[in-house]
Write a structure and sequence with these properties.
The structure is a homohexamer.
Chain A (H helix, E strand, L loop, with lengths): L1 H7 L4 H15 L14 H15 L1 H5 L8 H24 L13 H14 L1 H18 L6 H7 L1 H18 L2 H15 L2 E2 L4 E2 L4 E2 L6 E2 L4 E2 L4 E2 L4 E3 L20 E2 L4 E2 L4 E3 L3 E2 L4 E2 L4 E2 L8 E4 L3 E2 L1
Parallel strand pairs in A: 1-4, 2-5, 3-6, 4-7, 5-8, 6-9, 7-10, 8-11, 9-12, 10-13, 12-14
Chain lengths: 302, 302, 302, 302, 302, 302
């Protein structure tokens, strides 16, 4: 008899469900607005990214059997679907931008549409930047043998493509979606580039795992980074009440042609002059002039 | 003629299959018990985690269209399914706990059921801890703008949620499943927290890639870590026969409110006093008192 | 009326599609050959790897309900399917090997077949190496409790299995596929081992995130590495025109029984003598003799 | 050269696409309204039906592992999702009801919501009718052994459940969706019941293939039909211009307890009196009184 | 305000869920036993059928790229999986056989195993019968051009294969599963053969839609049927209380080499003598001698 | 001990696999050619049909959210993919056409390509015929309310679309694929139209279950059929050796504007004159002149 009850009520579900509701609504409430808003969806964003990647490099990221006569249909169709989905996700994201007046909610649909159209118009410029990144990879890694290898096997290039897309959305006014995309890239590649960072053409990260680039970093042209490089903030400015000031410029500026080797940590609003090389594992918190060559002093004990 | 034979026997499959059987059963046997036991399944665990995440934060990790009247049904259903699956995976895992007497196999089903029920009863406490982690992220990162951004885009928070679940299972007596969950989190986020570690409320990891926290580490409240921080063992104690002693206390203790910056390595059973700050890339193997501020001496050569 | 046009032409698709075609074919063309070649497919490779993993360890990576009478059928079937797919992917990859004369294209199908057959014949040797890696993990990590835990929960072991497969393909003459596999492993585990590296039996990486092992590295038997270890190149040799010389020997040699702790960076064609230990975060660019014990000098300022 | 062109333009896609556009927009246009309306989706309807079936008979059509404590969560969740989807499909369908004024389009969302709520409120009455149908099957077929066999293996019962749902939607004002559901049932079971037909409790069709029941047919209680029975119209009334008059009463009335054997054809607005039996293959176009027993005269030639 | 409530409680879910529970448990209860039993699953059965079909005709129903060396692995693996699943489904079905004593439940697992083993042992005999059916199709239809066309495009042959499998399970003691399979075939092909029917080798149904063959029918060798043929019961014998007597012999016996054309209805325990031909649409309720040629008298009015 | 063996060898798989091989290769061999040929795939054909349906009626069978600017990309992409797949399936089918010389195998690829191109060129004509069928449905069924209802809910129209596609392939020289498509339609709709039949514009089948139209039938314009109508062969001509003569003209000719009601059977190479009406269940084996009105004499016994 006890067994039968046990069989049919194994987990005290009603109690657990009630406890969780109480946690959501009273004791550990995290929702600040009175109303549920539909959140952007990771699954939808991954599909959208698949569509945009396929539009930019149809034979590498789309279908390998495309022909001259079918390729534009493929691109147009992939884009048409991806842009429709993107518009919906942008709309959902607008609720989370502090700069958006929720009283304007009725206009969010049209606003999302507009942002999406602007994004679409930038796609060939985005592609141009990515091609410059691919060329940087081809010339920067002695192990690289072809453009195809780079598009298929280089996580740093995958991270760069995600960044180029996320940055465009960030600038257009969709920061939550941009961050979501950068996190998807981070999860796949181990490279964490904040979409607010500004990065010039010809950008290459080799290996990539552990690279972190902060929100206000500015990188010139032809920057090359290796795994585990941090371009971070030294400290976080606080206001008089001790609250963090959001958005302050706090990350490094790298001028053109800088190379930073694996594990180096560059912190604060400093400037690395053009053509400088920062050695592996270096810890750097002060600006250096152009053409500097910084390396870690070696101090080994047997 | 040769072609035909070639076409139909391209890979010498019977030979390869026989070689692999010989490898499994004789030359490179890794199975120690006489009998095959059904192993826990990664796919099942990922589904279970999906169900538990959805139960804890239904609109963020479940469905975005839930209403007040549908949300409890959603939570109860997601939990009911996840707990059933979890009970089966726990049962499978029991065979791998050295502390379980295989003679007691007949009781594993009921034991798994009991563990699952206890886990269910802890879910709202687990949620409370996770909410404290989310709040720590919101106050600890100047770039964070909303709870939703944190739940969707912060790998450190995702790693913390996985850890909270895995640690509960670890304590209840399901260490293999707990490790499996921590490895799933590691693969997604680059953060590797052993489920045996003890971590207080308000835990936040920023960026996260490369963080490693060992099995016997103890972290107080409001700990903040950055990417690539290691809380590891300095050496592994061996017994008289030179075998590693499993389970010995060998990882650091962090008191409340400690902050450790990117790339720092803290090794051994040392104590970092409350409110201390450990700088980036610091290598630390000795205890430091409360309110310490440790940073790497900079030794740069041009 | 305007609305209607807007509704039906929201994204100026024809313009965007035309711009992207122009970018592909004129302004930012990356295709060097006149003809599209079918590229290897990540999805196909992931299926192939699933099949090979399942063939090597059927109950861990295949089905958990296999019996003595069904296991060989399972292995033979999984292999038969995986090898067929692999042969097709190898064929596609042959177009990207600089050493292949495209005039020989007609022979690529038979060549791919041959390579696949040779790969199949090596599978039990590959399994033997992997079993040595598993045993190294079991004896090298005090937290490890069973072979099953290691196969299911150790990213370093997963990376090693991927490497063993990729290296075999690399040696047989399929470098693009080998790289593709190493990148899939990198994405899952955070461990980046170039398939050209040579690694002896009993290889173990603990935690693993951020490990990088370069193309020409040579590792002896029983090597143990921790997270974020780099075995990299110091500089890239250039030819007289300033172009990188591809393929030169530029990565370290590790003799048998070397251990390298977390975050250490070992660069250049140096030799680490047998039985040496390299401490965490060490930066090493010169050879060390056998039985060396290198650790970072600690220079901390308060 | 020709080959290359052929390879890249195998199908003259631009010509075919242009021809199809011309066919759609000019020569064979079938769209009467100026604007595309989103159509109901077969895939969505099949999911909705799955959810409703599961809500009505949770262990037969939902999950077989439900317990007393989980079953209501399962039902509530399945219903919540299905009703949300249904509301959207009803909204789409409203555009196709001639009785709906398209000027009222702005109210379609609320109207669909209302219809869905009314449908939800009828679900337990619908279940009661279906249970009467199941009991009729159990008592009417000597081969039937259990309720489970009937729910799982009787196409006539499956058709009846589909009809009960479709008829409720038809009455509530969603005729297109109702027809769509009846066609889904037809495709699965070979039984074609127009959702406009009125059928009393205890309805049973055995075998079922080829049964057709017309839009204005009225069936009393405890009707039993066999395969290939037609309850059709004899002729279609036309108006003065020779156009078919839609909706006129033109199908038979069956009073309570009528049985009609396989292949019988009953046409026109005739009445079959209570308790009558119509034999196999009978062709009937005139009313018959209660308790009639009609059979085909047998005229065989050797 | 009303809107908000409406938004969050659109469907009165708690009321509907409570009503449905009441319907299930009180007003329209259909469950007779006190305990829920796990029901056989249509999805599982469809997978099992896929596996058995693939085992019997590997290149037609399995994979089209099998080779001499891979085919046995494919068959063994497909069978191993299918038989395991079948054993579980048979076990579930045992609860529904009136002849099984529920007190024997503990033995159901072993019993299901035994039945499955016996079924496996019969598979090559089943294949022999199916090949005789295929040959009958090839010689019986002037439009048939190859064995492959018959296996891929003939619903009557598909129905026959399903029947051969279902009948074997029926004889072994798994009538519910057998019925379930016959219903799956019915849904796909429109042919409804009760698994209890006994049918000799060389059986062919052309077109097939609407064919019904009853539980106690006996068909000799080389029977050919066309669409819409019914081999049914004339009346259902009742016991003294007016209840249907289940299982009584009530369907026709067809001796060898009988042909029955489209739409003919043959009812009751009559015998059609060897080599007889029954014309289209004939209605037959009396036995006929061997070599009879029965056709419908034609009575047409202009 | 016995149990353990039983556990691991439950099904005597090696014996069953060997028996099945023997059945395939010796006792019940059905393969006539020495070599396995890759068979057309039902799954592939269903995808191809999905693509062609979507190309012909993009908003009904493709995506419901298409706009004026996206629709041609959608159509071009869906067609490009479907035609590529079709070409491969046609190639496979060529091996089964008796008229193809297997010595010409090397040319099959180009031949399949050619047939596919011709098929593509006919698509807009096919669409024109289908639109005429839709209009016939709209004017022929008093219950029909819109073109959308007809495209979504009328199995007879679905069968007609399948037939139009299959017939085009049949004429182009791909009879096996054509038959395969007609069988897919048969399974979904219960309507069995041989692709060799010739059918004029404005063709409508109502309800449809059980309709059979033979290989050499010829139907004029504006034919209307109801469920269970057979247009079949009376007898099959044999050659002097008693073998069926394949391909002989043996099915009816229907002149324009003929209507045939449910269940009528029309057999043999007879002609039904223009504008004739054949009543339900009529059995007709002789030609009738134009404007005939044939109905079944009613012979009822009480």
């Amino acid at each position: 008899m006890t067994t039968k009850i046990y069989e049919n009520h194994p987990y005290q579900l009603p109690q657990v469900v009630a406890d969780l509701r109480k946690s959501r609504e009273e004791t550990h409430k995290i929702r600040h607005l009175g109303r549920v808003r539909e959140l952007p969806s990771r699954h939808a964003l991954e599909e959208i990214l698949g569509g945009i990647f396929a539009s930019l490099f149809p034979t590498h990221y789309g279908r390998s059997d495309l022909t001259d006569e079918s390729i534009d249909y493929f691109v147009g169709n992939a884009l048409g679907i991806a842009l429709n989905q993107l518009s919906e996700q942008i709309r959902r994201g607008l609720y989370f931008s502090s700069s958006n007046d929720l009283e304007q909610e009725a206009k969010f649909d049209a606003l999302a549409h507009d942002l999406t159209s602007q994004f679409a118009a930038e796609l060939s410029s985005i592609r141009a930047l990515i091609v410059s990144d691919i060329r940087a990879a081809l010339s920067g890694d002695p192990a690289a043998t072809s453009v195809s290898e780079i598009l298929l096997c280089y996580p740093g290039v995958s991270a760069a493509i995600h960044y180029r897309i996320a940055h465009a959305l960030y600038k257009l006014g969709s920061p939550l979606l941009a961050r979501f995309i950068s996190e998807i890239a981070h999860s796949k590649t181990g490279v964490d580039i904040h979409p607010g960072a500004q990065i010039g053409e010809g950008f290459f990260i080799d290996h990539g795992t552990g690279v972190v680039i902060g929100q206000t970093a500015i990188l010139g042209k032809n920057i090359r980074l290796y795994q585990a490089v941090t371009l971070g903030a030294k400290r976080f400015p606080e206001d008089d009440d001790g609250n963090l000031i959001k958005g302050a410029e706090r990350h490094p500026i790298l001028e053109d042609d800088v190379v930073i080797y694996a594990g180096a940590t560059v912190l604060g609003r400093i400037t690395i002059g053009a053509r400088s090389t920062i050695g592996g594992n270096v810890w750097l918190t002060k600006s250096v002039t152009s053409d500097s060559n910084i390396s870690q002093a070696q101090t080994l004990g047997h």
